Amino acid sequence: MIEGLKEKVVIVTGGAHGIGKAYCNGFAAAGARVVIADVDKPGAEATARDIGAQALPIQADVSNEDATKQMAAHTLERFGRIDVLINNAAVFSVVPMNRGRIETIDPEEWDRLMAVNLRGLFFCCRAVLPPMRAQKSGKIINIASGTVFAGAPGRIHYVTSKAATIGFTRTLSREVGADNINVNCLAPGNTLSEENPTEPMIKFRESSVSLRSLKRIQMPQDVVGAMLFLASPLSDFMTGQTVNVDGGISFL
Predict the structure, then answer these.
(1) Which residues are catalytic?
(2) Residues 25-78: pLDDT tens digits?
(3) Which of 41, 91, 156, 192 has its CA 20 to 30 A from that of 17?
(4) Is the dihedral of CA 112, 118, 124, 130 positive or negative?
């Protein structure tokens, strides 16, 4: 177990399902107090019940600024501080998206995806920065995607949002470094994150195996170790960086 996370207060947006849920379980196992913030209130509550007393479920639509402010306020009311923010919420799987080419993407879907994946990132960071600045410490980990480096066709709106996440991470790290706040980015590869995957989805996830140095499907648990590292004191002198976890497809 990675040391230094015991009693830390960690917010995971989109924490009720998939990789986000794996992050929540990983932090709980490391002794952290975990806030599961998700638009799916019953899902957040179920994950919190599984974790136990050190978990707090919060319903939050990250594309709504007031909701992110309330998320931070409820966290402070319950735990008194915010040590780590994981910006994991995204339109991707649980909130599905069009995976077709550019001609097939509806402009309204483009706007909704950007509202969650980018405006949500913006709002969540702004919500937690005041307490982090006051305590002169904090870790923010944004979630990008291996699709940024692959340039594969399809879902161009999603890939665009994740490329922008990397730029956002680099700029924010410059803006908050003087307050001893680290901002890094984690880029998972093609991960079997669906809770009830269909046969076509499994085949799609299997399609990356031949491209990897490590010849197997990537699972949510494969990303948790890197996440715990970025949130822990082990990464205290690391900021503005993107950590790629894809089993050896792209080498940055």
Answers:
(1) 158
(2) 999 999 999 999 999 999 999 999 999 999 999 999 999 999 999 999 999 999
(3) 156
(4) negative
Residue owning tokens 């001893």: 180
Rounded to the nearest 10 degrees, the angle between the axes of helix 107-114 and helix 156-176 is 30
Please tell me the class of the 9-245 domain.
alpha beta
> Are 48 and 55 in contact, with CB atoms under 8 Å apart?
yes
Sheet holding 181-188, edge to edge: 55-59, 33-38, 9-13, 84-87, 138-143, 181-188, 242-245
Cα–Cα nearest to 7, from 25, 26, 30: 30
| Amino acid type, 156 | I
The answer to whether the beta carbons of residues 13 and 62 sit under 8 Å apart is yes
Rounded Cα–Cα distance for residues 148 and 89 (Å) = 17
Residue type, 238: M
CA distances from 239 to 94, 225, 234 (A): 30, 17, 12
Tokens of 161: 């949002």
- What's the pTM? 0.94
